[in-house]
Task: inverse folding
């Protein structure tokens, strides 16, 4: 995700320095003109620093570790953290930033690298309003929309709510897809209909290729979605909000990890649903649009190859 976001900043002409623990992952960005630094601390001289990491512990290490952003004598003006982490870790990171007179914006994004490259990410942002206004041009280069949702770390709750809905929707989507196929309807026909209906969305569109052709190369893994359900249900307990449907999906994601799909794209849970229904899934091998561009064929529709599954 960080690479895709960096590509958009470079394409817009911004002066960019980048760091990744696996240096080879920065080669493509270096070829586009980014400066590659050896440690996170070397980014401290930049005015604005974006952070994208996988976990709460990673965020705190990137900021406060021995070679972290605040390890040297200088600090950026604003840190924009686009990770999905707990509100508690976000608050700790915010306090750490404030001790170095740095404004901290929690700015988790909605989408995956392919969505980012298509310019269709969205972003919920919380923190100091003046910092949000100052970096808004950067935010709306990375994302098509950056929504300010309040002070502090409330953007984390917004993102967790988003990902809880993500899990509930994919579970519902794969269940009805399996139901239709078991009744004789090809997956690409069902999804073409749904994507053109009032129930269609950017999400159902860009998950269509995975569900039709069983391509589960990860854009967001089952394991990471399960982690976000852990965080979301923790928030629900703290706020005394019942979430029975989300709790059930949480257990289904856990079952998926146990069945070996933890490191696949979370759309792979269709395999579990199909297995429970006694359905042998096979790729339909159909040229399918993902809703992110006008390709292929007729808009974003699925094309009928004329082949039976």
Result:
């Amino acid at each position: 995700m960080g690479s895709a976001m960096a590509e958009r900043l470079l394409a817009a002409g911004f002066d960019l320095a980048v760091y990744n623990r696996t240096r080879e992952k920065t080669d493509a960005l270096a070829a586009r003109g980014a400066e590659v630094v050896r440690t996170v601390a070397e980014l401290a001289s930049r005015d604005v620093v974006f952070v994208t990491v996988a976990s709460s512990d990673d965020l705190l290490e990137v900021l406060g570790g021995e070679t972290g952003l605040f390890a040297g004598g200088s600090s950026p003006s604003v840190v924009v953290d686009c990770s999905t982490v707990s509100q508690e870790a976000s608050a700790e990171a915010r306090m750490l930033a404030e001790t170095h007179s740095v404004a901290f914006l929690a700015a988790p994004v909605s989408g995956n690298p392919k969505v980012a490259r298509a310019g269709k990410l969205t972003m919920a942002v919380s923190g100091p309003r003046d910092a949000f206004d100052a970096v808004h041009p950067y935010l709306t280069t990375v994302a098509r929309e950056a929504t300010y949702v309040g002070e502090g770390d409330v953007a984390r709750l917004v993102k967790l709510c988003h990902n809880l809905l993500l899990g509930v929707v994919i579970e519902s989507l794969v269940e009805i897809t399996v139901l239709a196929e078991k009744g004789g309807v090809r997956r690409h026909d069902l999804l073409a209909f749904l994507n053109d209906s009032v129930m269609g969305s950017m999400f159902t569109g860009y998950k269509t290729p995975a569900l039709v052709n069983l391509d589960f190369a990860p854009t967001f893994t089952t394991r990471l979605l399960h982690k976000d359900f852990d965080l979301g249900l923790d928030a629900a307990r703290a706020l005394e909000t019942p979430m029975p449907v989300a709790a059930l999906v949480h257990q289904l994601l856990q079952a998926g990890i146990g069945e070996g799909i933890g490191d696949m794209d979370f759309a792979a849970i269709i395999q579990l649903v199909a297995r429970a229904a006694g359905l042998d899934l096979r790729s339909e091998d159909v040229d399918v649009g993902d809703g992110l561009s006008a390709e292929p064929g007729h808009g974003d529709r699925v094309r009928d190859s004329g082949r039976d599954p």
